[in-house]
Each structure stands twice: as C-alpha cells, then as structure tokens.
Amino acid sequence: MQIGFNLPNTGPLSQPEVMTRIAQSGEALGYDYLTVTDHVVLPNVTTPGYPYSESGEFMSTEPLYRHEQLTMVSYVAAKTSRIRLVLAVIVVPHRQPVLAAKMLASIDVLSGGRLVVGVGAGWLKAEFDAIVATPFAERGAVTDEYIHAFRELWTNPAPSFDGKYVKFRDIVLHPKPIQKPTPPIWVGGESPPALRRAAKLGDAWYPIGSNQKFLYDSLPRYQAGVGRLRQLTIEAGRAADAVAPVYRVKRYGAQLDLLASDGNRRLFSGTDADIVNDFRTLRDLGVQAIDIDFERPTADELIAEMGRFKAEVLAKI
C-alpha cells in the first residue's frame, strides 16, 4: 500500500521555498506520493458550500491564495526526484482537452514518469461560470469524453476523435507520456456517477471520506462503496478488481469526532493505535493507496508531524 501526503497549495505554506522544503522533506521521509489540489478561481468563500466539511467551509486557512495546479506540479517535479505526483484532482472540464492532454504528457515526461492523473467533474458552479465553456449541468458527460480524448491522444500515433464536446483529426501529439499505456487515472468523487466513471474509465477510485452528501467516513460505508465499485466494474465488462480502491483523508485523530452518523467509529479517528488498525483493515480490503492531509500552521510543524506519523503510525502497519 502506498502512502501519500497533501502538499499545501494555498496560503503561506505555498510560497515557493516553503512548499519546496515540504515536498523534499516528504520525499526524504519515504512517502510514496504527494498530492496537489485544483481550483482556478473561487467565489466569496465566506458563504458555506464546500462539500467535504461539516461546516461547509474550506479546511485550509487561506483558500483564495493558490497556484494553478499543473504549473505547481511542474515546479515540484523539478524540485524532487523520486516521489510520485498525484493530481487530487484535476477538474477535467476546466481545461481544453487537447491542451490539457499535452500539458499532462509533458509533466509525465519531464518528471521521469511520476504523474498520476486524478480526475473529477467538479462541483463549484461559480468557478465553472467564470472559466468553462461547456455547461455546468453536463460536466459529467464532458469529463467522460475528455478522458477518452486524453487516452486517444496519449496512445495513438495518429489520434482522431469525433465527440460532442471535442473533435480533432490530422494532428500529432508528441512526446507521449513515459508511462504506458498512459499515466494512471484515479477517478475522484463519491456520487453514483463518480463510481460509474471509476468503474468504466478509471485505474483507481479516489474518494474523500467526508463528503457530506455521500459519506464514506466509516468502515461499513467504505466497504459498501468498494462493493458497489466492484459490481459496477463487472457491469462495465471489466474484471472486478480492475479498479483499485484508494482513499483520501482530510482530517484524522483528535481532529475528528469518534463516531460517524451511522453509529460506527469514523475511519482514522481516535488514537494512533486506532489509526494503525484502520490502515491494516483497508489494506486487507484491497486499498492500494491512502493519503493524509497533515495541515499545520507552519512548515516546521507540518514536517515534524509527517515525521512523527511516519515513525509512530506508518512504521507499525
């Protein structure tokens, strides 16, 4: 099982020298991957609406100050050598698909084949209204079509595509990604359409447990989600285990109330020993990667917590 951490993309910890230090420290500590989130613009965030917290407020302290995701990943790729780079997740409709496919292929080549393309359809209408040409209500269909277009551009020496939202022919995209046939595609999202997308198009399903509309914050809830994923994968004509379960943790330990709303203990709540057991249980369930948000006020505190967690939790899995 691979273990990752979220690299801050907002506020003071996203200053170049600070995020470089955090990324290099995580690599030196032996974490397998880092994650970078995606927003291009945000509305007034004092109005609750963030789906992954109980309050509806962003968990980061300064969400409005942030780097563009692919630019930041390119920068971090040049400052590291081993650690994998996970988009968590790229909002697929935000970027014209041929240009996005080219940028993603370039990142994979320039990083030595370290890119993981986490994908999502997005949730923030105000952001879509500002930057996206396709309709917000059609974002799921747009995402699916763009993923197909990515794969065509990454694998076919003479790519062509005739879809509803994207059309191309008589073009060449080189260099292709280093990873064959393509960089791994981790499908984010917790809704039924996201699960269907993962089953049909993904190499992994990449939910956040705390989505208040579609909770996967307890073991029974997550087990049920994995069960639905496997059934949908079979229905899509693929092997039941073709799509790997992975999991994204926004808060852990004392930051969480012990019980979920279904009456079961929340995953990654409680003591270090509880968290060790959760890692073991999810590993036995077939989960192939888990990443943690170690958000702290300063880089020193964040790096110290990454080291403590590595020694006192991960070493005991």
Report on the structure:
With 317 residues, the protein is of the alpha/beta class. It has a single domain (2-316), classed as Luciferase-like domain (TIM Barrel), CATH 3.20.20.30. It is 37% helix and 13% strand. The protein has nine helices and eleven strands. The protein has helices at 16-29, 69-79, 97-110, 125-131, 139-155, 192-201, 219-235, 272-285, 299-312, and strands spanning 2-6, 33-36, 84-87, 90-91, 115-120, 161-162, 167-168, 185-188, 204-206, 244-249, 289-292. Strands 1-2-3-5-8-9-10-11 form an eight-stranded parallel beta barrel, surrounded by four helices. The chain has a two-stranded antiparallel sheet with strand order 6-7. Helix 6 (192-201) links the parallel strand 8 and strand 9 (204-206). The chain is globular. The termini are close together.
List keywords for this structure.
single chain; 317 residues; alpha/beta; TIM Barrel; eight-stranded parallel β-barrel; two-stranded antiparallel ribbon
